[in-house]
Amino acid sequence: MTHYQNWRRAALFQKPEYIPYSIMIHKANWMRYGRELEKVVLAHPQTWPTYQAGDWRKLAERPWDKKENPEGDYVDSWGCVWRTTQYGFVGTIIEHPLEDDAALAAFVPPPAESYNGGQDPVDFDEAAIRVAAAKKFGERPRGSLDHGYFLLRLEYLRGFENFMCDMMDPSDDFMRLYQAVHELNRTAVGNWIKAGVETIGLPEDLGAQDRSMIGPKCFRQWALPCYKELHGMAQRAGCITHFHMDGYVMDIADQINEIAPNIINPQDQANGVDNLAKEFKGRVCIDLDFDRQHALPFGTPGEIRELVEYEVKTLGSKDGGLMFKIEVRADVPPQNIDAVAGALEKYCRYWS
User: Fold this and answer.
1) The Cα angle at residue 232 between residues 227 and 235, in degrees rounded to 5
2) Residue 222 lies in a domain
3) What gap in Å lies between CA 312 and CA 25, rounded to an integer?
4) CA distances from 240 to 34, 123, 146, 244, 289 (A)
């Protein structure tokens, strides 16, 4: 069984051989720890099977993502201006192009044929070639809309306070924007389907630290219908949908189940592992975002191993429905990377 075949089995509750997981080490961590980090990676060939000694130099020298580079602002397809003050961290928007009502009334959307959520345009003909190559080599044929393609996109364009007011007292111009953004997203999903993908990512942060961003009532009115339509559109075409959702989402968990994505990507400690089990286990595959706020940067190796074990036993099943996503930024020491890799290698076959 290939990694992709096993991944599909986990996503679709078809008894995978092991729990899929990925540990993504950011450029900033390679820059900070270099050879010390390489020793950890070389000690875990099961987790990093293609890594070769000395690769850390190339990984540390990769170009910065445009939104993670403080040397210049980044302007997206809608004209939102992003700024960061620290290498390796996505900044915030400092200019909302439709903040003014006059600008909102006169807005012109980006071209639909290359639209992918509003950050960077996509050449879908080239994307189709990459998707075909992935299928040929047994890799996952996937595509994704940009992070923050709908609710966050409206906030990016209008600014947070304006967006909150828009939902309470929507103007005709706001409704035109709302409908235009959704229609552009429909087009983007359709273009990924035409490109031949088998998985479509629909990534959107939905929560703050202890509550959802707009609350259950507004979510049901403004977000639920659009999300449900996009996921249904992709699934009817035979695609698996992956719904990223940083932040606290327990107060809208029932609506997430109504949307019925195949996979959700929630944060573990922000929501509570037991809460995630109660609301989602057995209903939807959980691609768990392992604790980036506390355990990875500040926990001990023992605490990390205990948390992995608890999450596997609480959220996992012999039928599948559990994955792990580990995001390693500059603040994670090598011993904690070693601990999480070792724990996942140990417990990924717990249910099989």
Assistant:
1) 130
2) yes
3) 22
4) 36, 22, 17, 13, 19
Q: Can you give the residue range of the structural domain that contains 135?
A: 96-261
Q: Per the structure block, which two tokens stand in for 38?
A: 């390489």
pLDDT of residue 88: 87
For residue 319, count other CB atoms closer than 10 A to its CB: 15
How far is it, in rounded angstroms, from Cα 112 to Cα 185?
Answer: 9
For the chain, give the mean pLDDT. Answer: 97
Residue 306 buriedness (CB in 10 A; 0-12 / 13-18 / 19+):
middle
| Total domains, the chain | 1
pLDDT, one tens digit per residue, over 289-345 is 999 999 999 999 999 999 999 999 999 999 999 999 999 999 999 999 999 999 999
Please give the Cα distance from 204 to 242 (Å, whole number). 10
CATH of the domain at 232: 3.20.20.210
Q: Which residues pair with 255 in a beta bridge?
A: none
Q: What is the model's pLDDT at position 211?
A: 92
Residue with tokens 């989602």, as numbered in its chain? 280
